[in-house]
Amino acid sequence: TSGRHRACDHPGADIAAGDCPAVLFAGIGSVLQRQAGAEPPVITEVGVCNGRGCGDGGDLPDSCGDRAAAVREKGERKMEIKRFGDPERKKIMLLHGNLMCWRQFENLIPLLEKKFCVYAVSFDGFDGTDETTYTTAQAQADKVAEYIEKELDGRLDLLYAESLGCGPTIFLKASPNIQIGRMILSGPEYLDFGVLNRLILKVMPQKQYRTAHEKHMPAWALRFMGQTEQGMQTMLRRIPDHISLESVRATWEAGLYLYRTDFPVQPDAKVACWYGEKEGHMKKAIQRLRKAYPGLIVRCFPGFGHGEIINHPALLASELERFLTDGGTERCAEESGK
């Protein structure tokens, strides 16, 4: 536990270099068992008209109704985006963590769709098909931006990103063609280890690829993620099929080099950074994000590990609604700068 912070007033302390291989597994993210009594979300399927609306455009007539759920680029498979709730309400988009798909939010969506229109994305390479491959965070951002521009009139009220999803989200915020009212980056860890990056890229993608296909998380990885075996097993069961080693390696490369990007400064951006008290590699991430978003709001969740906020859907739904409606969120005193 060297270097790991224990209280909310010491946020983001980096873990010692000797712990790096284990901490890197934190990019996988976590999900919770289905909340007791929660109603299953009503899904607007990609490319299928279900009476409430229909999927995206390429193969459906305009008479089928409002088109939700996917964007087709010429010569490429359309990105999987599911819609839930009334499209006339405020719009929330959810971007998943590594090895996950839109189902990472299955327990959260039923709580949100009662008040909002929710869009849940599956990145390329994690959509359960063998027809797409994750390439770069920028490429994913471009696809999502095109969907928002064409199908949502270029505007989102709230964008929530977990772990891996934070990279595309940062690029989305810089897109000149869309507007994002508020944005939350959950667990955007700083994982650049300099000269060790090349070695990490040779070793860790293969380990994570094995995790994806064997559905097994080593005990040491659970400890460093601050997660429970029960919660992690639930996550492992939701890993989509057909994840390739190429996609896994691309996500590692995106994470290792994300903060070398020259992000544009956006002083008026309404952005929050959330993380769990038990996760490391946040101090440098917060410092770097503050350069792009001077008004960054930082929230530390005591006792939580990486991505563990998703294990508490009622809390997460409440905090998302509060942040969307008035920007209110508690701040860790030391890091808020307020």
Overview of the molecule:
The chain is an alpha/beta fold and 338 residues long. It contains eleven helices and eight strands. Strands 1-2-4-3-5-6-7-8 form an eight-stranded mixed sheet. Helix 3 (137-151) packs across helix 4 (166-173) and helix 5 crosses helix 8 (245-257). The longest helix is centred in the middle third of the chain and has 18 residues, at 197-214. The chain is globular, with a radius of gyration of 19 Å.
Secondary structure blueprint with pairings:
Layout lengths: L19 H4 L46 E2 L7 E6 L6 E5 L13 H4 L4 E6 L14 H15 L3 E8 L3 H8 L5 E8 L10 H18 L4 H7 L3 H9 L7 H13 L13 E6 L6 H10 L4 E5 L11 H14 L6 H4 L2
Parallel strand pairs: 3-4, 3-5, 5-6, 6-7, 7-8
Antiparallel strand pairs: 1-2, 2-4
Provide a brief overview of the structure.
This protein is an alpha/beta fold. It is 31% helix and 14% strand.
Radius of gyration: 19 Å
How much is the average pLDDT? 79
Computed structural class? alpha/beta
Count the E strands.
8
How far is it from the N-terminal to the C-terminal residue, by CA? 30 Å
Unreliably modeled segments: 1-39, 45-75, 330-338
Bulk shape: globular
Largest sheet: 8 strands, mixed
Helix count? 11
Strand order of the largest sheet: 1-2-4-3-5-6-7-8
- Element order: H for helix, E for strand: HEEEHEHEHEHHHHEHEHH
Strand proportion = 5-15%
